[in-house]
């Protein structure tokens, strides 16, 4: 059966090419492009496929155009071109906000979840400046669709953290077979004290922490498994890259956020979605790209598991996906239509006269004959 644009019910939005590559890597099936997909003035480029019974539309932000405004434009186009989308997913990488309450590590996954009156996403750079260093945030972002929150709760209830880690790890392993970029970077994962600034390396080691002082690292316990752990909470979204641990901690404390990213705030009020982020750095000066591919694939792998807890929509029963035979409708209307002029003449002719057959039932009723 040939699919059309109404058969696609899930929109998957990415910000970076590596995030889109990860999304494609976890597809159960990849579909051919539709002959005519996009609406007028839609500049998005789509990849189509299927995951766990859901027909998926994957789209990536334009190269070099990141942030909330670009995300909002992409979302507006995808909704016009695929009008039957039930919900969206914002999947990719993000910066972690580690603290005493949240042992977030590289490769872990953060899911946006409503908390303390928020929708699960806060725009940390939008508000009114009150005093020298205080921003009162204004506006409100919509919560993720209930069906995704229910699926998230179902996934949390069904699997322990270790079980989910193993499930995600298995999906990642399959993706690695297709694309070696997604290989596990290794157990080397160092978090430095917030006050300690990065010392840049030289040559091929320029973007590493080879010259950073090991004594400035934060001591953390060794985990039982190397796989990713899933965290649920608030995602802080804004139009700037956070690359300063002091700023990270301050905004994190104010918003209770456990992750930073740059697109979700542009989607929540226009494209109802859940945010899934793989942690690739700690939003500090030691940030580098080494963990980005692995973080992208762990986020995509979790999203695939999540979709297995969302009942697929049977689009074959959706009348929107079936062409309407306009000619039959016109023919049916023609059979019962009347000539207005002829009707007018008939009405005038029958004026003040009984309509044919009037009171006939009285004549034929035996009660009145007797």
Outline of this structure?
This protein is α/β, with parallel strands linked by helices and 370 residues long.
Q: What topology emerges from the helices and strands here?
A:
Blueprint: E1 10-14, H1 17-25, E2 29-31, E3 46-51, E4 54-60, H2 68-81, E5 87-96, E6 109-112, E7 121-123, E8 127-129, E9 135-137, H3 146-158, H4 161-178, E10 230-237, H5 245-255, E11 257-261, E12 273-281, H6 292-307, H7 326-336, H8 340-349, H9 360-364, H10 366-369
Parallel strand pairs: 1-4, 1-5, 5-12, 6-10, 7-10, 10-11
Antiparallel strand pairs: 2-3, 3-4, 5-11, 6-12, 8-9
List keywords for this structure.
single chain, 370 residues, alpha/beta, Rossmann fold, 2 domains, 10 helices, elongated
What proportion of the residues is helical, as a percent range? 25-40%
Order of strands across the biggest sheet? Answer: 5-11-10-6-12
Number of helices: 10
- Kindly state the mean pLDDT as a whole number? 86
CATH structural fold name of the largest domain: Rossmann fold
What is the CATH architecture descriptor of the largest domain? 3-Layer(aba) Sandwich
By secondary-structure content and strand pairing, the structural class works out as alpha/beta
| Radius of gyration from the alpha-carbon trace, in angstroms | 29 Å
Number of strands: 12
Strand count, sense and barrel status of the largest sheet are: 5 strands, mixed, barrel
Uncertain regions: pLDDT < 50 for 5+ in a row?
317-324
Q: How far from one another are the termini?
A: 70 Å
**Looking at the chains present, what oligomeric state does this protein adopt?**
single chain
CATH homologous superfamily title of the largest domain: Nucleoside phosphorylase domain
Number of domains: 2
| Anisotropy-based shape | elongated
CATH class category name of the largest domain:
Alpha Beta
Q: What string, H for helix and E for strand, traces the elements in order?
A: EHEEEHEEEEEHHEHEEHHHHH
